[in-house]
Amino acid sequence: MIRLSGRLVCMSEDERRAVLAHRAAHEAATRAEAGCIAFRIDDTDDPLIFDVTESFRDRAAFDAHQARTRDSAWFAATRSILRDFRVEELRD
């Protein structure tokens, strides 16, 4: 299993609005991907920071997600937002 956890750190209200405008569609598209176990983008106490957690069945599913995301409206709108992520590969 591949697990990603971390934060999206917005530097402006415009970046925050981009996350809010595209979050629901991005979450739904990701959850529908083959191999997606879980995917969440959650608010935090700081309105400019969002917690991100995602889990995929294996490296191939995670890589497919990354490729799809790069061609998405989500990425076009949020590409400049700081991503502070940690990716772990968990073995049985």
UniProtKB/TrEMBL annotation:
<protein>
    <submittedName>
        <fullName>Antibiotic biosynthesis monooxygenase</fullName>
    </submittedName>
</protein>
<dbReference type="GO" id="GO:0004497">
    <property type="term" value="F:monooxygenase activity"/>
</dbReference>
<keyword id="KW-0503">Monooxygenase</keyword>
<keyword id="KW-0560">Oxidoreductase</keyword>
<dbReference type="InterPro" id="IPR011008">
    <property type="entry name" value="Dimeric_a/b-barrel"/>
</dbReference>
<dbReference type="InterPro" id="IPR007138">
    <property type="entry name" value="ABM_dom"/>
</dbReference>
<dbReference type="Pfam" id="PF03992">
    <property type="entry name" value="ABM"/>
</dbReference>
<feature type="domain" description="ABM">
    <location>
        <begin position="2"/>
        <end position="90"/>
    </location>
</feature>
